[in-house]
Each structure stands twice: as structure tokens, then as C-alpha cells.
Amino acid sequence: MIYVKTERGKTALQSRSPMLTARQRPAFIMLDGKRSTEEVLLATSGFGVSAADIEQMVDLGLIEPMLAQTFAP
User: 19-39: per-residue pLDDT in tens?
Assistant: First the structure.
């Protein structure tokens, strides 16, 4: 799955909100609407980021799935 940042997520990053943990920050930054979850998890495995971290960011409204209609032909 491919995720994009929400406005709430962007604000949390800029304000260094505790909603976004230090471990999650690198993954959050990489979730740019281009990389898959698998790519991000692989690249951030050294930070200890897991699928649970991605799920938590979704639950908190920091990221959301990229919708298919977002793609331009």
C-alpha cells in the first residue's frame, strides 16, 4: 500500500508533536505517495520501525492511503 501525509501529519511533524515518535519520523518522511509501505519498512528497519508504527500513524490520522483516483493518466 502507498500512503500520503495528511495535513494533521504535516502539522505534527513541523511542531514536533509527541503523536509522532522519534522512531516513526523517518518512516513518516518517506511516506510520500511514491514509496510502498514495504519499501519504507525495509529502509527504516534499522530504526526499529514496524508495520504497527504505520498502523498507529493511520489510526492517529497522520497518514492515509493514497486513493487510486489520485493518479493522473
Answer: 999 999 999 999 999 999 999
